[in-house]
Amino acid sequence: MLSLLFSNPLSFVIFAIILLAVITVHEFAHALAADRLGDPTARLAGRLTLNPLSHLDPVGTLLFLMAGFGWGKPVPFDPFNLKNPKKDGAVISFAGPLSNIIIAVTASVILRIVMISGGFGLNFFLTDILITFIRFNILLAIFNLIPVHPLDGFRVVAGLLPKKYYHDWLELERYGIIFLIMLIFPFFGSSPVSAIISPVMKFFLSLLIPGSLGGII
To answer: Which residues of the chain have pLDDT under 70?
Structure first.
């Protein structure tokens, strides 16, 4: 994506705006879920906002621009403020990916309406933007559901595990960044995370993007 900055600056700006929107909604959903579940930590930290600057993680955003996947600034929450830390922590973590999936489905519906309507001069432009919007939302959701700290999937899995395994799983949190680097590092020309994400991406995009646009996926 970063190469577009020099080859097609306009496309780069559009992609960057979409990326900002996708990450912002994702992190806002975390903060909103935590606040609704009784933990004001995110709100007091200024994260219950749709201001993109409050949610950008420098490393995660740069990685998104360079490698095509990344993350926003983790939303803090205090488990001691939650009635059921195990379950509520999983709900808070899943709220981000879920928001991206909901938005992707909504964009898919709009895409089909645009295609059916016809006659609009902006149809091709809107189609490209909607497809990119769907792709970014699904990509962020899938990547963040990988069960490695600091990604959302780590806490989601923790919430699903029986209590006897819960604390043992949380012990792996300290090694999360090591696992994440191993997943991202391009061994033999491609990163392991790409092999994990690609087939899942293709499946969801085949559902959300009409078959006639399959060549754009």
So the answer is: 1-8, 67-70, 118-122, 212-217
- Predicted local distance difference test score (pLDDT) of residue 10: 79
For residue 200, the number of C-alpha atoms closer than 13 Å in the C-beta half-sphere is: 14
The reply to whether the predicted model has a pTM over 0.85 is yes
Read off the tokens for 73. Answer: 């600034």
**Given 18, 23, 25, 27, the catalytic residue:** 27
Q: CA geometry: angle at 25 spanning 50 and 87, to 5°?
A: 115
Convert the pLDDT of each residue in 23-36 to its tens digit.
999 999 999 999 99
Q: Which residue has the tokens 């600056």?
A: 9
Reference 46, options 35, 38, 37, 36; nearest CA is 35
Q: Indicate if 27 belongs to the active site.
A: yes
69 CB-near residues (< 8 Å, 6+ apart): 63, 139, 140, 143, 193, 197
138 touches 204 (CB < 8 A): yes
Rounded-to-integer distance, Cα 160 and Cα 71, Å: 22
Is the distance from CB of 197 to CB of 148 less than 8 angstroms? Answer: no
Q: Tokens at residue 188, please?
A: 């033999």
From the list 74, 29, 80, 35, the residue with the least C-alpha distance to 55 is 74
State both tokens at 57: 């993680």
HSE (CB half, 13 Å, CA atoms) of 212? 5
